[in-house]
Protein backbone atom coordinates (compact mmCIF):
# COMPACT_ATOMS: atom_id res chain seq x y z
CA UNK A 1 0.00 0.00 0.00
CA UNK A 2 1.65 3.21 -1.19
CA UNK A 3 1.97 6.07 1.28
CA UNK A 4 1.81 8.63 -1.51
CA UNK A 5 -0.52 9.41 -4.41
CA UNK A 6 0.24 11.40 -7.55
CA UNK A 7 -1.89 13.91 -9.44
CA UNK A 8 -2.60 11.13 -11.93
CA UNK A 9 -3.87 8.89 -9.13
CA UNK A 10 -6.22 11.63 -7.94
CA UNK A 11 -7.44 12.23 -11.51
CA UNK A 12 -8.30 8.54 -11.75
CA UNK A 13 -10.22 8.72 -8.48
CA UNK A 14 -12.28 11.62 -9.79
CA UNK A 15 -12.62 10.56 -13.42
CA UNK A 16 -11.19 13.91 -14.49
CA UNK A 17 -8.44 15.17 -16.78
CA UNK A 18 -5.12 16.21 -15.26
CA UNK A 19 -5.79 19.96 -15.87
CA UNK A 20 -9.18 19.65 -14.13
CA UNK A 21 -7.58 17.76 -11.25
CA UNK A 22 -4.74 20.25 -10.86
CA UNK A 23 -7.30 23.06 -10.67
CA UNK A 24 -9.22 21.21 -7.95
CA UNK A 25 -6.02 20.52 -6.00
CA UNK A 26 -4.95 24.14 -6.27
CA UNK A 27 -8.16 25.31 -4.65
CA UNK A 28 -7.85 22.69 -1.89
CA UNK A 29 -5.70 22.61 1.23
CA UNK A 30 -3.77 19.52 0.09
CA UNK A 31 -0.06 19.83 0.73
CA UNK A 32 2.29 18.23 -1.75
CA UNK A 33 5.85 17.02 -1.35
CA UNK A 34 8.52 16.37 -3.95
CA UNK A 35 9.54 12.73 -4.19
CA UNK A 36 12.08 11.71 -6.78
CA UNK A 37 11.19 14.73 -8.88
CA UNK A 38 7.42 14.09 -8.77
CA UNK A 39 4.75 16.03 -6.90
CA UNK A 40 2.92 13.62 -4.61
CA UNK A 41 0.44 13.80 -1.74
CA UNK A 42 -0.06 11.83 1.45
CA UNK A 43 -2.49 9.00 0.73
CA UNK A 44 -4.70 9.61 3.76
CA UNK A 45 -4.74 13.39 3.22
CA UNK A 46 -6.17 12.76 -0.25
CA UNK A 47 -8.77 10.27 0.94
CA UNK A 48 -9.89 12.59 3.74
CA UNK A 49 -10.11 15.50 1.28
CA UNK A 50 -12.25 13.44 -1.09
CA UNK A 51 -14.53 12.37 1.76
CA UNK A 52 -15.08 16.01 2.71
CA UNK A 53 -15.65 17.24 -0.85
CA UNK A 54 -17.78 14.54 -2.46
CA UNK A 55 -20.94 16.03 -0.97
CA UNK A 56 -20.37 19.29 -2.87
CA UNK A 57 -19.81 17.65 -6.28
CA UNK A 58 -22.53 17.76 -8.91
CA UNK A 59 -24.35 14.48 -9.52
CA UNK A 60 -22.52 14.09 -12.83
CA UNK A 61 -19.06 14.58 -11.29
CA UNK A 62 -19.90 12.25 -8.43
CA UNK A 63 -21.00 9.63 -10.93
CA UNK A 64 -17.68 9.99 -12.78
CA UNK A 65 -15.79 9.45 -9.51
CA UNK A 66 -17.92 6.37 -8.80
CA UNK A 67 -17.32 4.83 -12.24
CA UNK A 68 -13.67 5.78 -12.59
CA UNK A 69 -12.64 4.51 -9.15
CA UNK A 70 -14.56 1.28 -9.76
CA UNK A 71 -12.77 0.76 -13.07
CA UNK A 72 -9.36 1.36 -11.47
CA UNK A 73 -10.21 -1.10 -8.69
CA UNK A 74 -11.18 -3.75 -11.24
CA UNK A 75 -14.86 -3.64 -10.24
CA UNK A 76 -18.03 -3.74 -12.31
CA UNK A 77 -19.64 -0.30 -11.80
CA UNK A 78 -23.01 -1.65 -12.98
CA UNK A 79 -23.20 -4.13 -10.09
CA UNK A 80 -24.87 -3.45 -6.73
CA UNK A 81 -21.61 -3.47 -4.77
CA UNK A 82 -22.96 -1.72 -1.69
CA UNK A 83 -25.81 -4.19 -1.37
CA UNK A 84 -23.46 -7.14 -1.81
CA UNK A 85 -21.10 -5.87 0.88
CA UNK A 86 -23.93 -5.27 3.33
CA UNK A 87 -25.45 -8.68 2.61
CA UNK A 88 -22.17 -10.24 3.78
CA UNK A 89 -22.24 -8.38 7.11
CA UNK A 90 -24.82 -7.46 9.72
CA UNK A 91 -26.82 -4.24 9.66
CA UNK A 92 -26.83 -3.19 13.31
CA UNK A 93 -29.65 -1.72 15.39
CA UNK A 94 -27.94 -1.10 18.75
CA UNK A 95 -30.30 -0.65 21.68
CA UNK A 96 -27.90 1.61 23.57
CA UNK A 97 -25.87 4.09 21.53
CA UNK A 98 -26.61 7.71 22.34
CA UNK A 99 -23.24 9.50 22.07
CA UNK A 100 -20.45 9.73 19.52
CA UNK A 101 -18.11 7.68 21.69
CA UNK A 102 -20.68 4.95 22.32
CA UNK A 103 -21.50 4.66 18.61
CA UNK A 104 -17.81 4.41 17.68
CA UNK A 105 -17.30 1.85 20.44
CA UNK A 106 -20.20 -0.23 19.09
CA UNK A 107 -18.99 0.03 15.48
CA UNK A 108 -15.45 -0.94 16.47
CA UNK A 109 -16.57 -4.00 18.41
CA UNK A 110 -18.78 -5.16 15.54
CA UNK A 111 -15.83 -4.82 13.16
CA UNK A 112 -13.86 -7.14 15.45
CA UNK A 113 -16.81 -9.55 15.75
CA UNK A 114 -16.94 -9.76 11.94
CA UNK A 115 -13.30 -10.84 11.78
CA UNK A 116 -12.24 -7.82 9.72
CA UNK A 117 -9.88 -6.52 12.44
CA UNK A 118 -8.62 -7.90 15.74
CA UNK A 119 -8.29 -5.00 18.17
CA UNK A 120 -11.37 -2.93 19.01
CA UNK A 121 -9.37 -0.27 20.85
CA UNK A 122 -7.03 0.26 17.88
CA UNK A 123 -9.78 0.75 15.34
CA UNK A 124 -11.77 2.95 17.74
CA UNK A 125 -8.71 5.16 18.23
CA UNK A 126 -8.30 5.51 14.45
CA UNK A 127 -11.97 6.38 14.02
CA UNK A 128 -11.82 8.95 16.81
CA UNK A 129 -8.66 10.53 15.38
CA UNK A 130 -10.39 10.86 12.00
CA UNK A 131 -13.37 12.61 13.59
CA UNK A 132 -11.06 15.11 15.30
CA UNK A 133 -9.94 16.45 11.92
CA UNK A 134 -13.39 17.03 10.40
CA UNK A 135 -16.52 15.09 11.25
CA UNK A 136 -17.55 12.44 8.74
CA UNK A 137 -21.15 13.39 9.51
CA UNK A 138 -23.02 14.72 6.47
CA UNK A 139 -25.88 17.21 6.28
CA UNK A 140 -28.21 14.46 5.09
CA UNK A 141 -27.99 12.86 8.55
CA UNK A 142 -25.59 10.04 7.69
CA UNK A 143 -21.93 9.54 8.58
CA UNK A 144 -19.34 7.71 6.46
CA UNK A 145 -16.98 6.64 9.22
CA UNK A 146 -13.47 5.43 8.37
CA UNK A 147 -10.03 5.25 10.04
CA UNK A 148 -7.65 8.18 9.89
CA UNK A 149 -4.87 5.87 8.69
CA UNK A 150 -5.97 2.35 7.79
CA UNK A 151 -2.31 1.34 7.41
CA UNK A 152 -2.09 1.43 11.21
CA UNK A 153 -4.59 -1.45 11.40
CA UNK A 154 -4.23 -5.09 10.48
CA UNK A 155 -7.26 -5.56 8.24
CA UNK A 156 -8.03 -9.22 7.61
CA UNK A 157 -10.80 -8.42 5.12
CA UNK A 158 -12.51 -5.34 3.76
CA UNK A 159 -15.74 -4.38 5.46
CA UNK A 160 -18.78 -2.17 5.05
CA UNK A 161 -21.30 -2.00 7.89
CA UNK A 162 -24.46 -0.01 8.55
CA UNK A 163 -25.43 1.01 12.08
CA UNK A 164 -28.76 2.63 12.93
CA UNK A 165 -28.98 3.72 16.59
CA UNK A 166 -32.35 4.15 18.32
CA UNK A 167 -32.25 7.93 18.00
CA UNK A 168 -30.18 10.65 16.23
CA UNK A 169 -27.03 11.82 18.02
CA UNK A 170 -24.75 14.85 17.97
CA UNK A 171 -21.83 13.50 15.97
CA UNK A 172 -20.08 16.73 15.00
CA UNK A 173 -21.64 17.64 11.64
CA UNK A 174 -20.51 21.20 10.81
CA UNK A 175 -23.99 22.80 10.94
CA UNK A 176 -25.00 20.95 14.08
CA UNK A 177 -27.37 18.53 12.34
CA UNK A 178 -27.86 15.28 14.23
CA UNK A 179 -26.69 12.01 12.69
CA UNK A 180 -28.97 8.99 12.39
CA UNK A 181 -27.16 6.52 10.07
CA UNK A 182 -23.57 5.30 10.32
CA UNK A 183 -21.63 3.47 7.62
CA UNK A 184 -18.19 2.07 8.48
CA UNK A 185 -15.72 1.78 5.59
CA UNK A 186 -12.67 -0.47 5.93
CA UNK A 187 -11.01 -0.70 2.52
CA UNK A 188 -7.19 -0.86 2.30
CA UNK A 189 -7.30 -0.40 -1.51
CA UNK A 190 -7.69 3.38 -2.05
CA UNK A 191 -9.56 2.96 -5.36
CA UNK A 192 -11.96 0.56 -3.69
CA UNK A 193 -12.41 3.01 -0.79
CA UNK A 194 -13.12 5.95 -3.12
CA UNK A 195 -15.58 3.90 -5.17
CA UNK A 196 -17.57 2.92 -2.06
CA UNK A 197 -17.39 6.51 -0.77
CA UNK A 198 -18.69 7.92 -4.06
CA UNK A 199 -21.42 5.28 -4.42
CA UNK A 200 -22.67 5.89 -0.86
CA UNK A 201 -22.78 9.63 -1.49
CA UNK A 202 -24.92 8.96 -4.55
CA UNK A 203 -27.31 6.76 -2.59
CA UNK A 204 -27.63 9.36 0.15
CA UNK A 205 -28.79 12.12 -2.19
CA UNK A 206 -32.35 10.93 -1.67
CA UNK A 207 -34.25 12.06 1.42
CA UNK A 208 -36.82 9.34 0.75
CA UNK A 209 -34.09 6.68 0.89
CA UNK A 210 -32.83 7.97 4.24
CA UNK A 211 -36.35 8.08 5.68
CA UNK A 212 -36.98 4.51 4.53
CA UNK A 213 -33.73 3.29 6.08
CA UNK A 214 -34.63 4.95 9.37
CA UNK A 215 -37.98 3.18 9.29
CA UNK A 216 -36.40 -0.27 8.78
CA UNK A 217 -36.63 -2.69 11.68
CA UNK A 218 -34.56 -5.62 10.42
CA UNK A 219 -31.40 -6.46 8.47
CA UNK A 220 -33.48 -7.86 5.60
CA UNK A 221 -35.74 -4.81 5.34
CA UNK A 222 -32.83 -2.34 5.41
CA UNK A 223 -30.88 -4.40 2.84
CA UNK A 224 -33.86 -4.43 0.48
CA UNK A 225 -34.14 -0.63 0.74
CA UNK A 226 -30.42 -0.24 -0.05
CA UNK A 227 -30.67 -2.66 -2.98
CA UNK A 228 -33.64 -0.85 -4.55
CA UNK A 229 -31.95 2.53 -4.16
CA UNK A 230 -28.68 1.26 -5.62
CA UNK A 231 -30.50 -0.14 -8.67
CA UNK A 232 -32.14 3.26 -9.10
CA UNK A 233 -28.79 5.07 -8.95
CA UNK A 234 -27.12 2.68 -11.39
CA UNK A 235 -29.95 2.97 -13.92
CA UNK A 236 -30.20 6.77 -13.65
CA UNK A 237 -26.62 7.53 -14.65
CA UNK A 238 -25.65 10.93 -13.25
CA UNK A 239 -29.16 12.26 -12.70
CA UNK A 240 -29.55 11.12 -9.06
Describe the protein.
The strands form 2 sheets. A 4-stranded mixed β-sheet has the order 4-6-7-5, with helices on both faces. It folds into 2 domains: 4-72, Multidrug-efflux Transporter Regulator, Chain: A, Domain 2 (Orthogonal Bundle); 81-236, Mannitol-specific EII, Chain A (3-Layer(aba) Sandwich), CATH 3.40.930.10. Strand 2 and strand 3 (38-42) form a beta hairpin. It is globular and about 55 Å long. It is 49% helix and 12% strand. The protein has 240 residues and is of the alpha/beta class. The relative contact order is 0.15. The mean pLDDT is 89. Helix 5 packs antiparallel against helix 10, helix 6 packs across helix 7 and helix 9 packs antiparallel against helix 10 (219-236).
Tell how many strands the DSSP assignment holds: 7
Q: What composes the largest sheet?
A: 4 strands, mixed
Shape summary: globular
**Considering DSSP H and I runs of 4 or more, what fraction of the residues is helical?**
40-55%
CATH superfamily of the largest domain: Mannitol-specific EII, Chain A
Q: Could you give a quick summary of the protein structure above?
A:
The protein has 240 residues and is an alpha/beta fold. Helix content is 49%, strand content 12%. It has two domains: 4-72, Multidrug-efflux Transporter Regulator, Chain: A, Domain 2 (Orthogonal Bundle), CATH 1.10.1660; 81-236, 3-Layer(aba) Sandwich (Mannitol-specific EII, Chain A).
Amino acid sequence: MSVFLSETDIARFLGQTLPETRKAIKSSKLKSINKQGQKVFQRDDVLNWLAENFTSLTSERLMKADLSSADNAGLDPSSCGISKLLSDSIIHFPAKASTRSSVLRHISQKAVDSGAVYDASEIREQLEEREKIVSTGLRCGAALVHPLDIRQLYVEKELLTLTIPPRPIAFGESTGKLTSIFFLLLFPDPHRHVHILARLNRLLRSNEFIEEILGASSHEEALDIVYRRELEVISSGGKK
